[in-house]
Design brief:
four-stranded antiparallel sheet, 268 residues, Phosphomannomutase, Rossmann fold, binds magnesium ion, 2 domains, Hypothetical Protein, Haloacid Dehalogenase-like Hydrolase, Chain: A, domain 2, alpha/beta
Amino acid sequence: MAAAAAIYPPLNERPIKNTIVLFDVDETLTISRQLASPAMLQLLSELRQKVAIGYVGGSDFAKQQEQLGSAEVNVTSLFDFCFSENGLTAFRLGEKLASTSFIGWIGEEKYKKLVTWILHYIADLDIPIKRGTFVEFRNGMINVSPIGRNASVAERNDFTAYDTEHNIRPKMVAELQKAFPDLGLTYSIGGQISFDIFPNGWDKTYCLNHVEAEKSREDGVDYTTIHFFGDKTYEGGNDWEIYSDPRTVGHSVKNPEDTYAQIKELFF
Ligand SMILES: [Mg+2]
C-alpha cells in the first residue's frame, strides 16, 4: 500500500504550520464498522505531507487497526496521532503515549461503592427477565445493563420496547445521579440494553490534552489550528463536544465521501 511506504516531513516541518487535522472514524473515514477505502487512505497520505493528521475514535485500538490498517499495515504508521477510546489509549508517530483508565481515575474505594449500589439496584428491579453480565468493566468506562449483556437478540429487542414504555434506564440514571452527586460522572444511554458511565470530559475532547502537550516537547509544535471532521456533530452526538469546542475548527460531514470532498476542497 502506498501509504505505508511513504515518507513524511518531521511534524515541525510540515508545510502548513501549526495545524493538525483530526478525524472521527465511523461514518467519517469509513462506513460504520467497515474498512477505509484505498482512495481515502491515499488522500490521507497526501494530506499528511502538508499537516499533522490523527484519528479519534471511541472504540478500542483493535477495532481501528481492523478498519484502517490491514494484516500488513499497522494503523499507527498511517497517522501521526492515533487516539483510541477518545485518547485514553494514544500513539504518537507509532509510539505509545501514557494511557489512562477508569479504575485508575476513580480509585477502588469509590468504584466499590458505585458498583455495589448498581448491583443492589438491579437486584431489586422488577423487569420481565434478567440474564447475566449486568456490569461490564472496560478500560475507560463501565457499561451497565439492567437485563444483562448476555441477553439474546430477541431478548434485547423485547427489553428495548419495555424500556421505551417504562423508562428503566432513564430512571436508573436519575437515581444514580441522586446517589452520587459528587463523583463527576457522565451517564450516556446508547444502544438497546445498556448505558455507559465515564468521567466528565472523557469524550472526544480528551484527545486534545495530548495535542496540547505537543508544544511542551523539544521540537514540539504548538497546534494553534486544530481541524476536526465528524459525522455526529449534533448536540447529543458523540462528536458534539469536540466539534463545538472553542479549541477546534469543526467540520460536519455526511459520510466518508463527503469527508473526502471537504478535504480536497480545503487543502488541495
Ligand atoms: Mg462517527
